[in-house]
Write a structure and sequence with these properties.
Blueprint (H helix, E strand, L loop, with lengths): L4 E4 L6 H10 L3 E5 L12 E4 L5 H8 L6 E3 L7 H10 L8 H8 L1 H10 L7 E4 L2 H8 L6 E5 L9 E3 L5 H10 L6 E5 L4 E10 L2 E4 L2 E6 L7 E6 L5 H18 L4 E9 L5 E7 L7 H9 L3 H10 L12 E7 L7 E4 L4 H5 L4 E6 L6 E2 L10 E7 L2 H15 L2 E4 L11 E2 L5
Parallel strand pairs: 1-2, 1-4, 2-3
Antiparallel strand pairs: 5-8, 6-7, 6-8, 9-10, 9-11, 9-13, 11-12, 12-15, 13-14, 15-19, 16-18, 16-20, 17-19, 20-21
Length: 417
Amino acid sequence: MTAPLLVLGAGEDQLPIYLEARRRGIPTIAVDQRTDRPGLALADTFLHMSTRDARAIAAAVGPVALSGVVSAASDACLHSWLALAQQYVTAYGIPRRAADASADKTAFHRVASEAGVPRYGWETSIDPAEVVSRARWLRLPIVVKPTDGSGSRGTTLVTDPRDLAAAVRYAHEHSFSGAVMAEEFVSGRGLTIEIFMRKGQAYFVPITEKRLIPGPHFLLGGHTCPAPLDEATRARLVGIAESLCAAMGITDGPANFDVVLAPDGTPYVLEVGARLCGNGYPRLMRAVYGVDTVAALVSLALGEPFELPRQPPRHGILHVMASPLDVPGGLALLSTVDEIRRLPGVCDVELFLRPGDVVQPFTQSAHKLGYLVVTGDTPPQAEQRLAHALDVLGLTVIPAGDVAPAEQPEGKLDVVN
């Protein structure tokens, strides 16, 4: 009998791992603290507990053989991944320094400084009052966030010193450890570098441009791929990502970096996740490059050789569907997902909610409604296809309340550039 694959997390971004394991005939053990995750329908065994609690997970799994330990798109479980891979002597696990740098932004700042990557001012403390005091010496605007947060939870852009204390309190509420960081805001183009290392060298390095939603919380509305960059800039970014992986001990496997390319061409790396990028990123890689990074990750976890064969890239857009309202509402839908899949250029579409379900304001990544991936022969064609697909889909959020839906202003999803 094939030994099971232990998968940390069962959310939308871990779902492709379960599908890949099922395709290979490998049983899975899912770990998640929630019981409504989509991956649970595909898992053979479910452990209802936090992915952070490696001891509890090991006690529940018991003294059995595992084919591997794996996860995607989550920093919260990286230390558990490291501990469980060591305990069960699996083929692949996260290097400790990579787990530290991913889970603690303070640790990443130290790694980046040692690697000679351009830096900017920052302060951190577990004491909110101390963060406020130290941050007053930083150059405005300031980004305040939990040191161990992800998905934009607890993050605020502060432009007025009078708002600093409230931003620190907000970040502290979303910090698992209680530590909060204040950083000088770096303006420029927001990029994502995902790198897949093999035998100590960069093997596959897509670079995308973020499609950020306007506002103070840095919410991601999607990606444009590939990011329009000249060859010299791209080479420099690949080199930085490769050197940071070396500094963290990543010789094989994925990592992703949030980068701001300043107007003067200086690349500032904000943070790292030593795992596959979330928010549907693997879907975009399949559409643009024909690359299956999830399959490669599963092979790596199993100790099997992996390849990432690729096609000439197209121009692609990953669009994160989310409520445009700042209040809870109900989801309305004009067309079916199957209708959208038949439209020209639509490569992937998925909704996580059904018409009539309650929709939360998009204050964090976890409140997204779904994904839409389109490609085109040119960037303008991809943009046109995205706009057309959203128009046909007719995804609308109606504010909740006592007023009849027909009398309330509706929020229709639109393209974020």
